[in-house]
Write a structure and sequence with these properties.
One of its GO terms (molecular function) is P-type sodium:potassium-exchanging transporter activity. By secondary structure, this protein is an alpha+beta fold. The chain has 33 helices and 26 strands.
Length: 903
């Protein structure tokens, strides 16, 4: 499709744009032109991108090294005739694949949601007549008429405008509706500043306009976003990358040990067939069959806990990924802020008044308010009555019908005790002078009663009011000459705080006046006061930012708002930026600045910048990629269509559940049900707990596999019978993983989990200290199991009893070691035995199963076990307690230097 590359529509005069498309605004295209252009440009819809089929997504669940090992183990055990054991292993693989497929299937709708956002109708002029057509039938050059409430059906260059305001928040992040103009704009104007353009999927909130279609389908801004979403990398999470790397190491270690076992036995003169079976036994023992299931269960537990705290996880690995985030890039509006404009200061009667309370709830007060202060009260009254918005207070919250700026004025008046219904009865409206962008003000005419002059209220830009006013109202109701310098100084002060400032004015008109026109505002206005408003930061977001900084996580705010507003909110949030005299945005990077940077420059500067303003969708994506290039684990939050590419590219995308678009939700890994940034802090905390528990399980389970492999290897090297059989190895691995290891999924988060830095994503899943722990416990299992096996064999001469003792050594040492594994630094006695009752329950269940393994006849037949006496049990319990003590001593020695340094 030809997207008219090189055409900068906002920089071309409207007349020239019409000439490019060979169309007249009052006639539009004719039927043949529409047909030709439909053939040339295609429908006004987004091209569906080919995704993976359901079968492909399912088969890819098996494309993991650890799964290859398990499948091989299943095949080998089946070849050995152990059908039940083979079925258990293959069953574990299938369950993991099904869970992964279901989670992934939920994430396949990002492009469909983007496409659905363009399904609408449009009013066009064709062949000189006005008609309504499906938006998909629009072609470049169509003349489209826009009215309040319409969704813009394509990208338009506006040619005629009347008081048009457009909600572009989903596309640009601009927090308030944008006033539009048909005037020519500079070529380098960023997306949010292109006032003479209307973009597909945005909403008309006020006024009307006529525009010519300049881009359709994939060539629109939303189409570009769709392409970016489809082309964004499907990143493996840090957890899946580490598990994959760890699995590769494990795969080669197992194959190497199996080959060594086979070779050593053959060199000793043993039969090759027997040595092959020994090698198979070693491979089966070394494979942690319970690991995939444990990973799934531990992540699923994290999903459940996060859901209870307002975070819905769409992809299982995302649970852990958020816990490892080193940078959180957050949208401002509605995430870090209330998304509710709030009047925070009023200047009236030459005095400043702070206003407390946030949002649209009528809660708060005005500092120094008095009913006798005529200047302050009349300023509030003007904002209340010169207003076309209303607020509905519903059970689920407040609903604004109209402009959020006007809603803020209504709430401020309510804090001063003014009621809209009562004041409207006392001063009924007679006429309205609508806001027009060229005049920058709105006016209303009110009846004060019989034989009384009519009263006109005005609100608008400061310049519009000051140019027309000569006097100002004082608190006692008297008038004084207007002090322009004092007002401009106050406007500058408020502006440095990132506030939007409106001016209020009034004048009396003849008592027979019934209408209002611009001549009534030309001069002799009485200046009433200023109202300063901002979308304030959420108090809980401020606390969350502080918590993230303590946790070593950088927070970066990305917004479509102007740099001054962004800087002010950044300061209030505590993002580490400071205002500079005369240069309030010195530490804010704008989208226009970013556009001039090379990738290398952006990568270098992105880490040291906390606030990014007037950022376009592709720049959000570029920023995320720059941070990832630095090795950061990036979490990205957003709610608009413009956020979708960056949400998909980020290591974890977080969408808003209430105010977020479907495109943002479908591109995300996690959805916040309360749209609250503080919930991300809770989710990060849960994610860290999930990773801790997962690591505890791995460090708990691997010593069993190491010990089993070493026992088999030692038996082959010594030329003795295997102390444990393959089927017994499977019993140990599967039952201990299910009854003992999975209990670590319920381990509560350790104190101080949010007071440590995020782990380095480049570090392997296990460090040298944990490898030492694994080898230590594996060595203890080798000594204890092989030693008691030989002792029992020498004492009784019964092979089955000796092997039963060896199996019970493995299980009981693992059971006691489970209590060691509840913390890498603290003893189980310091944690408290009942802080995780599931561990105690798992221990009890495992004891019952081992008694059945040892004494139940059919279990003896199935697993080759045999009953043993009291003395072997005492030996088993003794070595288990000894192993527990040795590991606690190792833990104490390893953590003693760190404690000394901290002290």
């Amino acid at each position: 499709m030809d997207c008219f590359s090189g055409k900068v529509w906002h920089h071309l005069p409207a007349k020239e744009v019409l000439e490019v498309f060979q169309v007249e605004p009052d006639k539009g295209l004719d039927t043949l032109q529409v047909k030709w252009r439909t053939d040339e440009f295609g429908p006004n819809s987004l091209t569906a991108r080919r995704g993976k089929t359901k079968l492909e997504r399912f088969l890819l669940q098996f494309h993991q090294p650890l799964v290859y090992i398990l499948i091989a183990a299943g095949i080998i055990t089946a070849a050995l005739g152990e059908v039940v054991d083979s079925g258990v292993i293959i069953g574990v693989v299938l369950v993991n694949a099904i869970v992964g497929y279901i989670q992934e299937a939920k994430a396949a709708g990002a492009l469909e949601a983007l496409a659905n956002s363009m399904i609408t109708e449009a009013v066009v002029i064709r062949s000189g007549s006005t008609r309504r057509v499906a938006a998909s039938e629009l072609v470049p050059g169509d003349i489209v008429i826009l009215r309040s409430g319409d969704k813009v059906p394509a990208d338009l260059r506006l040619v005629a405008i009347k008081d048009l305001r457009v909600d572009e928040s989903a596309l640009t992040g601009e927090s308030v509706p944008v006033g539009k103009s048909a005037d020519l704009l500079p070529q380098d104007a960023v997306l949010g500043d292109r006032r003479n353009m209307a973009y597909a999927s945005t909403l008309i909130t006020y006024g009307q306009a006529t525009g010519v279609v300049v881009s359709t389908g994939d060539c629109t801004e939303i189409g570009r976003i769709s392409t970016m979403v489809s082309e964004a990398d499907e990143l493996a999470t840090p957890l899946t990358r580490k598990i994959t790397s760890f699995s590769h190491i494990l795969l080669w270690a197992i194959l190497g040990l199996a080959a060594l076992t086979f070779a050593a036995g053959v060199l000793r003169g043993e039969k090759a067939a027997d040595m092959f079976m020994a090698a198979v036994a070693l491979a089966v023992g070394a494979i942690p069959e319970g690991l995939p299931a444990a990973v799934t269960v531990i992540l699923a537990m994290g999903v459940s806990r996060m859901a209870s705290r307002g975070a819905i996880i769409r992809k299982l690995p995302a649970v852990e990924t958020l816990g490892g985030a080193s940078v959180i890039c957050s949208d401002k509006t509605g995430t870090l802020t209330e998304n509710q404009m709030t009047v925070t200061a009023i200047f009236a009667g030459r005095a400043s008044h702070e206003v407390s309370g946030t949002g649209y709830k009528p809660e708060g007060s005005i500092e120094g308010f008095s009913d006798t202060d005529q200047a302050l009260r009349t300023t509030l009254l003007a904002g209340l009555l010169c207003n076309d918005t209303r607020i509905e207070y519903l059970e689920g919250g407040e609903k604004v019908i109209g402009d959020p700026t006007e809603a803020a004025l209504i709430v401020a008046a309510g804090k001063g005790g003014l009621d809209l219904e009562a004041e409207s009865k006392g001063l009924p409206r007679l006429d309205t002078l609508p806001f027009e962008s060229e005049h920058q003000y709105m006016g209303t005419l009110h009846d004060q009663g019989a034989d009384t002059p009519r009263l006109a209220f005005f609100k608008g830009s400061v310049e519009a009011m000051l140019d027309r006013a000569t006097m100002e109202l004082l608190p006692d109701g008297s008038l004084a000459p207007l002090d322009h310098a004092a007002i401009r100084a106050e406007v500058e002060r408020l502006g440095l705080g990132g506030m939007r400032v409106l001016a209020m004015g009034c004048r009396e008109l003849p008592k027979d006046a019934s209408s209002l026109d611009h001549g009534d505002v030309a001069s002799d206005l009485i200046f009433l006061g200023l109202t300063a408003m901002i979308d304030p930061p959420r108090p809980e977001a401020i606390r969350a930012v502080q918590a993230f900084h303590r946790a070593g996580v950088n927070v970066k705010m990305i917004t479509g708002d102007h740099a001054v507003t962004a800087a002010a909110i950044g300061v209030q949030l505590g993002l580490g930026i400071q205002t500079c005299p005369g240069q309030p945005t010195c530490q804010v990077m704008s989208g226009s600045e970013m556009a001039l940077m090379s990738d290398e420059e952006l990568i270098a500067k992105a880490a040291d910048t906390s606030v990014f303003a007037r950022v376009a969708p592709d720049q959000k994506l570029r920023l995320v990629m720059a941070l990832q290039n630095r090795g950061e684990v990036v979490a990205m939050t957003g709610d608009g269509v413009n956020d979708a590419p960056a949400l998909k590219q980020a290591d974890i995308g977080v969408a808003m559940g209430r105010g977020g678009t479907e495109a943002a939700k479908e591109a995300s890994d996690m959805i916040l049900t309360d749209d609250n940034f503080a919930t991300i802090e809770a989710a990060v905390e849960e994610g860290r707990g999930v990773y801790d528990n997962l690591l505890k399980f791995i460090v708990w389970t691997l010593p069993t596999n190491v010990g089993e492999g070493l026992v088999i290897l030692a038996a082959v090297l010594l030329g003795v019978a295997l102390p444990i059989l393959p089927v017994q190895i499977l019993w140990i691995n599967m039952t201990t993983a299910g009854c003992l290891g999975l209990m670590l999924a319920f381990e509560p988060k350790e104190p101080g989990i949010m007071d440590r830095d995020p782990r380095d994503p480049r570090m392997p899943i296990l460090d040298s200290e944990l490898y030492i722990r694994i080898m230590l416990v594996g060595g203890l299992l080798l000594i204890a199991a092989f030693g008691l096996y030989e002792w029992e064999l020498q004492t009784t001469g019964v092979q089955e009893q000796a092997r039963t003792v060896a199996v019970n050594v493995f299980v009981m040492v693992e059971a006691f070691y489970l209590f060691n594994s509840r913390s890498f630094t603290r003893s189980p006695f310091a944690l408290g035995l009942w802080t995780n009752p599931w561990v105690v329950a798992g221990f009890g269940i495992m004891v019952i199963l081992q008694l059945a393994f040892t004494y139940v006849p059919f279990m003896n037949v199935l697993f080759g076990s045999a009953p043993i006496g009291l003395l072997p049990w005492l030996k088993i319990i003794g070595v288990s307690i000894l192993a527990f003590i040795v590991i606690e001593i190792e833990k104490w020695l390893r953590n003693r230097p760190a404690k000394a340094v901290r002290a």
